[in-house]
Amino acid sequence: MSDEDTRRTLEEKEKEYLERMAQRKMDHERALAVLEEEHKNAIEQCQEEYEEDLKKLTSQSYIHEVRRHINSTVPIARLPPEILTEIFLIFAIEYWDVFKRTPKLMRDRIATARQQPWMTLKHVCRRWQDVVLHTPSLFATIAPRRKDLVDFELKQSRTRLIDILHYSVYAKEALDLALRQLHRVKSMELVLDSDHFNSIKADGEY
């Protein structure tokens, strides 16, 4: 083989070598790009899952579920609904007994500042709420303040006889709504201004 042939052979081998190296470089860059894309996608997926878990942990429904589970583990949660109902009714009786013993001039302030018994009990947990809403007697004492609350109490007390305790000269519409159920009234204690008293006297419904 002549020197020329040897030179050409070496050039061809060098060319092939450079082409292989270039191909390897391209393959390496493509593989690196794929890995980077997969890594990026994995990070984005982890970020989405983290944000989803965070939303779940901070959502009201999840918090309520956790609270419901915790509430279900306390001893009082094992009491049957009938016993809870008796306890709630005793609580309501004591509440209104203390309320009636309060000086009349302070009753409007107390009735405005404090929740009625069923409101306090209803917000403890879902189970207590169910018991409260299925105990009409808890709604049978009405201290009119807001028309929507009176309407709710009249519906929840169903056919029970009701007691009306009214010491506010400002809740006229709420009292008027309660007095439309006069046929169900067992007792009333009212504090009225003269105009409201005269309007009630003049109204044939009352």
Residue share in helix: 55-70%
Can you tell me the overall shape? rod-shaped
Q: What fraction strand?
A: 5-15%
Whole-number mean pLDDT: 81
β-strand number: 3
How widely separated are the two ends? 131 Å
- Low-pLDDT ranges: none
Q: Quick one: biggest sheet?
A: 3 strands, parallel
List key phrases describing it.
206 residues, mainly alpha, three-stranded parallel sheet, 3 strands
Short description:
By secondary structure, this protein is mostly helical. The protein contains nine helices and three strands.
Report on the structure:
By secondary structure, this protein is mainly alpha-helical. Helix content is 69%, strand content 6%. The chain contains nine helices and three strands; from the N terminus they run ααααααβαβαβα. The protein has helices at residues 3-58, 60-73, 81-101, 104-113, 117-122, 126-133, 147-156, 172-179, 194-202; strands at residues 141-142, 162-166, 185-190. A three-stranded parallel sheet has the order 1-2-3, with helices on one face. Helix 8 links the parallel strand 2 and strand 3. Helix 7 packs parallel to helix 8. The radius of gyration is 39 Å and the shape is rod-shaped.
